[in-house]
Fold this sequence. Notes:
Elements: H1 5-9, E1 19-23, H2 30-33, E2 61-62, E3 65-66, H3 87-93, E4 107-108, E5 110-112, E6 125-126, E7 132-133, E8 138-142, E9 151-152, E10 166-167, E11 174-176, E12 188-189, E13 214-218, H4 219-231, H5 242-253, E14 255-259, E15 264-269, H6 271-276, H7 284-295, H8 301-307, H9 311-315, E16 317-320, E17 331-334, H10 348-352, H11 358-364
Parallel strand pairs: 8-11
Antiparallel strand pairs: 1-13, 2-3, 4-12, 5-8, 6-7, 9-10, 14-15, 16-17
Helix pairs in contact: 4-5, 4-7
Amino acid sequence: xxxxxxxxxxxxxxxxxxxxxxxxxxxxxxxYNASSLTFSNGNAPENFAVWMMTPNYTVIRSSGxxxxxxxxxxxxxxxxxxMCPTIGAIANTFADKTNxxxxxxxxxxxxxxxxNKAGITTPTLNNANGLPVAPGGAILSFLNAENPAIVYxxxxxxxxxxxxxxxxxxxxxxxxxxxxxxxxxxxGLWKLGTYRTDNGTGLGSPNGAxxxxxxxxxxxxxxxxxxxxxxxxAAPQGGKSARELVxxxxxxxxxxxFDNGGNVAKSADNSAAMTAATPAVIDINYILAERSRxxxxxxxxxxxxxxxxKWTELSSSYQICGPAYGNHTxxxxxxxxxxxxxLRPIPQVQFDAMIMTASExxxxxxxxx
Length: 369
């Protein structure tokens, strides 16, 4: 396994020893990449997964300028604004943002100025509280915890960076607390973000589909599969209890070598604190939470909840703020999950290819559809 969680997802470290299977892409050839290297319309077999959870950070304004330009780098990329993390995921699943490196290694939590790469020569722009920020400086930050000192903008004017963000006295970056993330503005998905080596000194080609491999299976998952089997009744080998298996990953998660939010090298080993915090008795809900911390945004969650029959229990409601810039009041949204939803409908195209009578097809379809 990789020494840190950061290393697993770092673009320059793709195709590392922890990855057991991936669907590959390349920036060297459009033919072998199976898509254009400069633009995309979001069709298979392109890799555009990260677009889905990238907010439109280009709306942010500093001194009236788009201070965070669309760029082909891992923390930015093409915004598509289709999905967002829930408040519960940010506040509860990733509750420990100090010891556990997986929040920092999953999300883009700080949007930094890059207007210079777009040919804008202004050395500094006025940002939150009218304070100057230079390229590379924090323009907007998602805070790790609630802060009563935040004053959110009344609208989308300059005082909120045009995205309705908040300010804290003395800080030059706009801020949003965990309870203030919304359907329109939220932490992006750093772990799957764009990685290119052909940007030069500019913004590169951020509209192309990702040329990174899409990871399908990781060695780390085998630990959680074994832990889940243990919880479900399998007899573990000595030293391989559910807690011991989970703690292999939690110990690794406690090791830092880089702080994405701070954009600075960080040498810290919080493994002891991480493993000590693991419950003495592991249940399936804890394993599911660990899977979320390891694989958030990678397409596992629905299948995990269906497999363990936990979808209704764990996902019948969630909290998120509204769909407009400046919405920072959490709303509770209920899901009406029916028993038959645990199976998806058999597609019509499959029925169209089957030589069966209408009654036979009706009987063949999953119940409820």
